[in-house]
User: Fold these one by one.
Assistant:
Number 1:
Amino acid sequence: MKDAAPQRIHLADYRPPSHLVEDVHLTFQLDPKATRVTSRIRFKPNPDSEETGFRLHGEGLTLISAKIDGTRVDPEMVEDGLVVAAPNDAFTWEAVVEINPEDNKALEGLYLSNGMYCTQCEAQGFRRITYYPDRPDVMAPFTVRIESDLPVLLSNGNLKERGEGFTEWHDPWPKPAYLFALVAGELVDVHDTFITKSGREVQLAVWVRKGDEHKCGWALNSLKKSMKWDEDIYGREYDLDIFNIVAVDDFNMGAMENKGLNIFNASAVLCSPETSTDADFERIEAIVAHEYFHNWTGNRITCRDWFQLCLKEGLTVFRDQQFTADMRSAPVKRIEDAILLRARQFREDAGPLAHPVRPESFVEINNFYTVTVYEKGAELIGMLKRIVGDETYYKALDLYFERHDGDAATIEDWIKVFEDAADRDLSQFMLWYSQAGTPKITVTETFEEGTHTLVLEQSVPDTPGQADKKPMHIPLLFALFDPDTGQQFGEDVLLELTEPRIEIRTRGHDRKPVVSLNRDFSAPVIIDDTSRTDDRLFLLANETDSFNRWEAARSLTRDALTALATGGLGPGEEYLDALNGLLVDDSLDPAYRALILRQPSEEEIAQAIFDYGRHPEPLSVNRAADTLRARMAAHFEPDLPRLFRGMQVHGAYSPEAADAGRRAFANGLLTLLSRLDGGTAARAQFDQADNMTNRLAALGSLLQIDEGAEALARFESDWKHDRLVMNKWYAIQISLAPPEAAVGTARALTEREDFDWTNPNRFRAVMGGLVSNPAGFHDATGAGYEFLADWLIRLDEKNPQTAARTSTAFETWKRYDPKRQDLIKAQLDRILGTEGLSRDLTEMMTRIRG
Ligand code: PHE
Ligand code: ZN
């Protein structure tokens, strides 16, 4: 059965479920090797289904007994579950199964993580717990009894009863099985309460291992801020008496929105100033919010099927982005999101793994928790909001909650509420959900006798399985500037591109005006802009849209780096002067200046070189980045020490945006300063830092100038007892190793006693560290490829999901020269040829191989 060719599932084949579930009773008798799960489920035929027959999903279960209406039955085992004859009307199914949590290293279903029981059921993990129609359009209230001697026994919903060796929970809100959760262990909680807007008191708790209590405050506080924000902005109130968050050491993703019992990767919840960076604090705040927001966008309204994943994820990411923008700085958040989108999603869209925001088929759904579904999915919501306007957006959302509460909904349902609220036809907009690939907009300008003509032409590239695409509905925020005064002409205009080509003509200019397109990154598109360097320098000085001002700096830096990496001239004086002007401009937010200073990644430069039609040489890109840093340091030298000193934060550590922004800027400056002072300032900061942000940044600066050995050793001896901190130690020394040493460093680290590779965070620290050192990973001998392939094969046997995610490191292989392509292909083939390879990794390798 295991060897059967993996089945491809198609959106077009969706059929309503044959049966609906009225209620579910589960009893767990916990045991590390033999947990018994007894289920009593009330089924009734679905009037909307033509399906006959009764099937339940199940995977890796030992069926002990099964009954229908109290009579023993003998089900037929099939590939993904069982089939059994069932009555034509309502009936009760009862089953006893046995499962082995201790052996479960896939971290799906019920598993043990450092002695603690926990579950992960999205997308299809519930079928590893008991037989069930494991699909999101089957929703039911759950009652759960947990029997165990462990002190803390949690499940979804409200606590009904607690007694000697058991608890009983009831979740009144009908939910799909993927939102089921159970946790049991020796846990302690840090708690608080929240009063909802209608005056109900909710008990909030963060559950952790003893000793981690001091790392819970920030998450708890983030939860309260999220609850308040969702009431204020979306009018959404929480709907149970309890909200629990649990920190788990072994977890494949960031966190999971199980109803009333969110389960988090420990790295996405635990933090303290000594052990966590400002970026960790911001990420934790955002993930706590994201999971909380799912209570309405995901749980109360869920997805009809897994093709609709972006319905909950795109919207919830958009909501957490709005939240972060409100808690911190909106312009900074917009830039951070654009950086992420371009680095990861544009790359996905440009390669063999490109797929629509709503895919039309898949082999393994776990492979579709992607940046396209999440981050591009969020951009689509932002575009809708811009197209209909803020007021109509919130009207549409109210309508969505009103019309679909309790539903398992589709993207069609979602778009319909916008069409109804805005009274517009959005069928062209739907293409954003079905056409993969990043639209490209080519810009041409002409200026004749006072008339300026701007021509915009859109095209969507071919992607695997999709060619000849239709023009999209693209909202582009646009402004024209007077080159003499530096002032904007009139108001911003929102251009709605719907045709392949448009012309915008303005008259009566003395000189050619300067164009600023896609302000605020209003659409996730590539602007193929041939604009000259002096237009960008103009925008750098005059643009009032903070995104496009940053964009001007970014594109100048990108050009300088691509030129340096391909044997051209480096950055011009004018550009360095302009940049310097921004850095010393105290009217600008330090967090914003930090972003101006931050270089594009080597990945981004490699892609840019490839877009110009050449194979990037990773070592040259790496050297170019280094050269640019050196030039910047030299050029900014007169201001650097003073600026650095001026940005120091005094007093008690606060993770809030203002202080974090100063630290981000100071630490960017420190990297440059270290090239001038041989690391003196960085060493001093490393020694004196009272927080992880400054300590890690100092370590990074030292590693970049090859002066990090001593600090690394100190760091290890200070933190060897803390798994999360040690993940940073693992990652940073690989990602900042000199290219020729990167693979060796990574390999040596995997030989350490504490390299627990079945822990996804630790595995990612090493593999992610290597991949983020492109010149090291793409070592011309192919050693990096072989190293990664070895580990993917090894991990796949235990944890296919994390192995498959990590394999995306190979998705850019066609960018590189023929020799490297051959080396990578050989590894892809070796992986594919491995006996017993998982469905997850097989699908990824097949798609990447192309
Ligand atoms: N649904 C989770 C989120 O986005 C992510 C997740 C998916 C976690 C699959 C685990 C497994 O918040
Ligand atoms: Zn989510």
Number 2:
Amino acid sequence: MPSTHLPSVELHLHIEGTLEPELIFELAARNKVTLPYRDIADLKSRYEFTDLQSFLTLYYANMAVLQTAQDFADLTRAYLRRASAAGVRHAEIFLDPQAHTVRGVSLAACVNGVAGALRDSQAQFGLSSALIITFLRDQPAAEALDTLTQLIAMNAPIIGIGLDSAEVGHPPIDFVEVFDLARAHGLKCVAHAGEEGPPEYVWQALQLLQVSRVDHGIRSLEDPLLVDYLVQNAIPLTVCPLSNVRLRVVDTLADHPLQAMLERGLLVTINSDDPAYFGGYLDDTFAAITRTFNLTVDQLAVLARNGVRAAFIDDDRRAELL
Ligand code: HPA
Ligand code: ZN
């Protein structure tokens, strides 16, 4: 019998955010990259963030060690191994190609490296997986459009697109053309919205980008009409509680509106976002919220089922996971 309380699906996970300090040093040695840190302890001492941007600065800097398809495949396999141990049975993974092509890494190297590892995820690690390409909203939309055009021409094995990076000042409306092109090619659409940005950005993601899931979305609670819309249309929110604490979206985990979101009937899923930076993988995240909120077995079952409901999988796979 499938266990209903297991954290079985992960839908908001940046593969670059699984780059652990140990692997940063290993890849730096392999690729002869000089790191601006004395040692692992020195690097770890910098994992104190004041907001999203303070995290993004370190997150993008550390990507310098990712250079070859092999590096991306090793990174992805390390995540899959850890996710499998966490009980994850299906993962939809974000990759930010622009953060790599800007450094001279080819689009093929990063996409094929990650996709190659994902292809074997079921056989090697016992979980199904899929790739979602995320575009950097603080870079020009024309660059995102160019990247998507290349991915389509390459027939890249992706199921959808998303939008991430610095949110405030970079509204979804800027990316309408990109998302129109993705939908015309049958790709699923998601977007980070309402993490640091206002409810208006969530509305734009829904109405202009026609996303079928909202990543984070916790500031939606500030707009009762938006909450009603999300509930009535059963739009999943991929919530990342440990991320919200570490990026100071909320002060402490106890202050997180997770229970209010569940009580309002929102389709909340639980995710780890950038686990190497935010203090835990999906099992750690579930353990922390269970402890902090005294979640009942029934509430945990709802969260696990929501993940399965929100996944971009076919009905047969959904039935297997439920
Ligand atoms: N928000 C926006 N962009 C990101 C995040 C996030 O939480 N993680 C990695 N890129
Ligand atoms: Zn994210």
